[in-house]
Amino acid sequence: MSTRTESPAAADFGIDTTSRSTGEAVRDYLARLRAGDLGSLPAVLGLVALVVVFRVLSDGFLTLDNTANLLAQGAGKMIIAMGLVFVLLLGEIDLSAGTASGVCAAVMAMHYVRAGNLLGGMGTTVFLVFACGLAVAALLAVFLRIWAGAALSLLTLVLAVVGAPANPWLEMLLALGVGAAIGVITGFLVSTIGMPSFVVTLALFITWQGVILRFIGEGGVFGIGTDPVLFAVANGNMSVLGSWLLCAVVICGYALVVLGEHLSRLRRELVTTPTPLVVTKTVCVAVASIAATYALTRNRSTNEYADIRGVPYVVPIVLVLLAVGTYALNRTRYGRHVYAVGGNAEAARRAGINVSRIRASVFVVGSSTAALGAIVYSSKVGSVDPQAGGLNTLLFAVGAAVIGGTSLFGGRGKVLHAVVGGLALAVVENGLGLLKQPAAMVNIVTGLVLLLAATVDALSRRRAARG
Description:
single chain, ABC transporter involved in vitamin B12 uptake, BtuC, 2 domains, two-stranded antiparallel sheet, 2 strands, disordered N terminus
């Protein structure tokens, strides 16, 4: 008869305290894949395949200059996709995210070209409607208890009414505030009024298109490329020293978070990934970061008289949003509530979660992040026109999230999925552009990639349900 005694933790948690070997962890992962839990694996494999194909077809694809340009090209839509992940996690959809970002870009650009005089740029009637909309959004945010949305809406209202002078940082803050206000209004209509998100956001998609046209005028353009700060957001680069400091921060931050959590679980005798796998994963991130930084700090100019070095500013912007979004979903009560509502809204309601508030808040997150995406893509082209946020902006953003592994059915997804999917779409667009393919071919290939991702998602869910 065995005399071994279990620790209290083992007795209380059972399998959660069972240690696993590396082989067992690998077998568990393979079992999850067979059960349909694919995560971002298809997107990663697809991204690798695309890179290989375009490298074979075009000698200019993996050059330093094109790689840096690729990151800047795809960053705007990728950032919008990161916000849409929150919406998709609830099984909702925001069809207005693209044109909402266009409204944010138009307000930002108008404030710049009109030297801070939004009243003169919009006209009295339109400005009054704009101001009333911000005030209503602030009140609705207070009603919904979304305090960040209330603060941003109110601050934007004050800046607009006071007529704050043109300043690139104020312009970007205005864009963010307008995005938050739009998200509050959308969230209220969906969560409190009870309208289907598809109908609400489709209507707002058309509405915001009209607003952009009214702000800019048919055939008009607001140029922002003359401001060095606004232009540098998507076109500037960090110094070589700053690039290596960013590399050190990424490596140290990742190691502290991953190894810290691993050691904490080991101390509490909870099941965790085997130490060799954790260390290997950390080393791989470090090696990839160092290699990328080394490549981007070399001179990538095609002109012998110019010198272009450093990590593009869009890289730390995306990394910060990735870290914040991942932390919010994985380490906060809010994130747990988002996953709970997305998994089973009725069960979440019975557990005491304010489902209405959570549903409204994801639209605020989505629209606010879309405003950040608007800042980046407007900076890239140096102007804002009536097509801002239109055309394929939304489709590519939703596609990035879904291709990366976020489920359209809700309850499953990560902010990282938007980054992986956004890179895949950026590679497609950039690679086909280098091959001199027309826009029609870009749309066809992108659509087929999205269809394939949706098919994989549906089949994996069916397989998981059977298991």
